[in-house]
Amino acid sequence: MDNLLNISLSGAYTIVLSCLGIYLLVILFTRIFGKRSFSKMSSFDFAMTVAVGSLIATTVLSSTVSLAEGALGLLAIYFFQLTAAFFRRYKSFRKAIDNTPLLLMEKDIILYNNLKKARVTEGDLRAQLRKANVSDYSEIEAVVFETTGDITVLHSKNINNNLKSWLLTDVAV
């Protein structure tokens, strides 16, 4: 119990300096490598965000990881994310690392097999429809389970069919 609140002045100093150093490096690397580093556009981007958070915590709180080692790890993660973003131009690479959006509803038809694939319940679906202010099935054009795990509801009484087709181009049915 005594160890829970026990911290030396040099330990506190090391944590604060590591925190400041890694914080400044995250800002610098994000400026260099771009804002996409913290986007939620794909599962790969999400993994990048989690990895950066984990590396920050380890660098700041672990006495076995130096600031230089944390900085190198951080640089490597940003570099790998930039490399993946470059290779995502190629369909085969993109297909290997990205999830495909999945259609959950088309007009008033609930696609139960797709709900099961996405592990989304009818209750989850209803919650998203409420969140999108849908009050009638006739308003729904499509409901899509996005690559990030978000659910998008396309609804309108006057949706343009050309726009709808374009928006659903890469969505699995």
Automatic annotation (TrEMBL):
InterPro entries: DUF421, UPF0702_alpha/beta_dom_sf, YetF_N. It is a multi-pass membrane protein. Residues 89-170 form the YetF C-terminal domain. It is found in: Cell membrane. Keywords: Cell membrane, Membrane, Transmembrane, Transmembrane helix. Residues 24-82 form the YetF-like N-terminal transmembrane domain. The chain crosses the membrane at residues 12-34, 46-65, 71-87. Gene3D superfamilies: bsu07140 like domains. Belongs to the UPF0702 family. This is DUF421 domain-containing protein. It comes from Aequorivita marisscotiae.
